[in-house]
Design goal:
Blueprint (H helix, E strand, L loop, with lengths): L2 H13 L3 H20 E11 L5 E10 L11 E3 H7 L4 E3 L2 E4 L9 H5 L20 E7 L5 E10 L7 H44 L5 H15 L4 E6 L10 E3 L9 H17 L3 E4 L10 H14 L3 E9 L2 E10 L8 H67 L6 H30 L9 E4 H19 L3 E5 L5 E4 L1 H17 L7 E8 L2 E8 L6 H6 L10 H4 L7 H11 L3 E7 L3 E8 L5
Parallel strand pairs: 14-16
Antiparallel strand pairs: 1-2, 1-7, 2-3, 4-5, 5-6, 6-7, 8-9, 8-12, 10-11, 11-12, 13-15, 16-17, 17-19, 18-19
Helix pairs in contact: 1-2, 1-5, 2-5, 5-6, 5-9, 9-10, 10-15, 11-12, 12-15
Bound molecules: adenosine-5'-diphosphate (ADP).
Length: 602
């Protein structure tokens, strides 16, 4: 044997990439022990922690003629039995040698990995006996036992001499390094895979879709990420009962027997409170959160549907448990590792948040739908009532007009009729504004936009209002900057906007003040500014200015006749034109209202 032969496995380990290659490297070490040191059997195991916390040895590489047929890759045996057995063994460096004479039980082979081979020892003082035990304990740098290298049946039928022991020691050192690296790589690969699963789940969960769809979409990632055979998710309904939808990755409905639904719900709550996940399998005792009886019922159900084991994960957010996730594996699949369990609990948190968000979203959505319905109803009511008022009001106003012109009317009756007439006019204004408000607030009657030249439109409005303004001694100035002052919208509605703003400016300005209209255009659109030197509006009032029926808290303003609907109409018209309105005002100094409307390209 050359130094190269011993170095061969080490090189293989260094160059190995994926998990399988590490297994290959360990295999090579086992084979080297058999071929180069001269043993018929070598077997490398790693220490695993089972879900109930006990440590076990899992065979991950073996070489040689397994005369017993007992060594199976993946086979697990309790570590404790081996450690107890070798307490009295001779210490050969990393190896422990237990001559058969010291064995307490003749069954030991079966306890830690394989049965006793059926061979006859040779006739020599150093003869190897089939019950002799030789095993190296493989530790990591921190001194933690990570695996074992067990060997059996020397080719020459003798217990190993100093030369063989020296070689064995070197292979044990290599096997130790390889086992630690393999376990670290395995863990790293698991971590990467599970982190990727979590990322995928979170990404899918952020999709703006309904909860059912999100949970359905997550299943594939969960099954792949956790290397499970299937998964299902149960969410609790709004009242917290476990009757929510159950989604299964296979696309088939999982029909849980009634009793199990309630059981899963209770178990999820307990597991969430403990922040733990539960592994259920026939080979292991019940987890703390499950009563012995419940455990048996679940195992019976798993048997019935052909599932070997399940990982039960509570879903929740904060202190609230919102459902559970179940991942399944078949008999013969790997056990749920510590990493699986930690990652699953993290995903329980992610999915819990998804359930909560989706619920809040659905609730908000429902609220919006209800509010919209309410708003539509209010609009209809206003429209219908004002419509119904209009005709009788027209009759009342008509007769009042006739009465006023009647010569037989005495002075007392005349002033009563005049008061009625003023009231009817005021009522007529309210009804007109209500009708207009309901019209411009009705989304089913959208505007049909067309180019509207604002210069003549504004000039007409100014002309009309100028009559009142003159009576109050208020001059209205108009300033037009630049050309192509064309808006994209409905001419009649834009006319209402300018009329309402301008009539307010005149109404809320004392005689002697002035009012101005300015028209200009920039990249944003066309702008109409109506400014006055009137009462001004307090900051508090500005917040409610565009609300329906809002009238100022300023007593001077309230003295003016008004409905509180003019600006509400303006806001609705501007909104349905995709425009903007802003107000700058200060009490005692005046107000500036600026409306911006979209403009067609020049
Ligand atoms: P109104 O019919 O009362 O004028 P609006 O909706 O047009 O209803 O206006 C709401 C309130 O806003 C008015 O009652 C008034 O107090 C205030 N307001 C509107 N425009 C002005 C303005 N140019 N100057 C001062 N206050 C104004």
């Amino acid at each position: 044997m050359t130094p190269d032969d011993v170095a061969r496995p080490a090189t293989a380990i260094r160059d190995a990439g994926p998990e399988e290659m590490f297994r290959g490297a360990l295999q090579l070490i086992a084979e080297s022990v058999t071929e180069l040191v001269g043993f018929q059997l070598a077997c490398i195991s790693v220490v695993r922690t089972s879900p109930d916390g006990t440590q076990e040895l899992e065979v991950i590489a073996d070489a040689g003629d397994d005369l017993t047929g007992e060594i199976i890759i993946g086979r697990r045996t309790p570590l404790k039995s081996l450690l107890l057995e070798i307490e009295k063994a001779e210490v050969w460096g990393q190896f422990r040698f237990l001559p058969h004479e010291l064995l307490e039980t003749q069954e030991v082979g079966e306890e830690y990995g394989w049965a006793v081979p059926d061979i006859e020892p040779i006739d020599a003082p150093d003869a190897w006996h089939p019950l002799d035990l030789l095993v190296a304990l493989l530790h990591d740098d921190q001194g933690t036992l990570r695996g074992t290298l067990a060997i059996d049946l020397p080719d020459d039928g003798r217990r190993p001499g100093p030369e063989q022991r020296r070689l064995l020691e070197r292979f044990a050192a290599q096997a130790g390094r390889a086992v630690v690296t393999a376990l670290e790589r395995e863990e790293l690969a698991e971590q990467v895979r599970l982190a990727e699963t979590a990322r995928t789940i979170v990404r899918q969960a952020n999709a703006q879709e309904g909860l059912d769809r999100i949970l359905q979409d997550c299943q594939q990632g969960l099954v792949e990420g956790f290397r499970s055979r299937g998964s299902w998710i149960q969410t609790f309904d709004e009242d917290g009962a476990g009757t929510g939808a159950i989604h299964s990755s296979a696309g088939i409905d999982v029909r849980l027997p009634d009793g199990l639904v309630g059981l899963a719900e209770r178990a999820a709550r307990r597991a969430w409170a403990d922040q733990s996940v539960v592994v259920v399998t026939g080979d292991r005792p019940a987890h703390d959160v499950l009563a012995e009886d419940d455990h048996r019922r679940i195992v019976a159900f798993l048997d019935a549907i052909g599932v070997g084991s399940l990982l039960f994960v509570p879903l929740g957010a904060g202190s609230e448990c919102l459902g559970n996730l179940v991942l399944t594996r078949a008999d013969g699949d790997p056990e749920w590792s510590e990493l699986d369990r930690t990652a699953a609990l993290d995903i329980g948190h992610d999915l819990g948040r998804v359930v909560l968000n989706a619920r809040n979203f659905e609730r908000e959505h429902q609220l919006v739908v209800e509010l919209r319905a309410l708003d539509a109803y209010k609009g209809q009511l206003i429209g219908t009532v004002s419509h119904e008022l209009k005709n009788p009001l027209a009759a009342v106003s008509g007769y009042l007009e006739m009465l006023q012109s009647s010569p037989e009317l005495g002075p007392g009756s005349r002033s009563a009729v005049e008061a009625m007439s003023r009231g009817a006019t005021r009522l007529g204004r309210v009804v007109d504004d209500l009708l207009l408000l309901s019209k411009v607030g009705d989304p089913s009657h959208a505007i049909i936009p067309a180019p509207v030249d604002l210069v003549p439109l504004v000039a007409e409005v100014v002309d009309l209002i100028d009559v009142q303004a003159r009576q109050k001694g208020i001059p209205i100035t108009t300033e037009v900057s630049g050309g192509w002052l064309v808006a994209h919208g409905d001419a009649w509605e834009i006319d209402r906007v300018v009329t309402n703003l301008l009539s307010n400016a005149v109404k809320y300005t004392a005689p002697g003040g002035s009012v101005g209209v300015r028209l200009w255009r920039d990249d944003e659109g066309v702008h109409v500014t109506v400014s006055d030197e009137g009462l001004g509006i307090s900051a508090d009032d500005q917040e409610h200015l565009f609300d329906e029926f809002f009238r100022s808290t300023n007593p001077e303003a309230v003295r003016e006749p008004g409905t509180g609907l003019g600006l509400a109409i303006v806001r609705r018209i501007v909104d349905r034109h995709d425009g903007r309105i802003r107000v700058d005002s200060e009490v005692g100094r005046g107000s500036v209202f600026t409306v911006t409307l979209p403009a067609p390209p020049a």
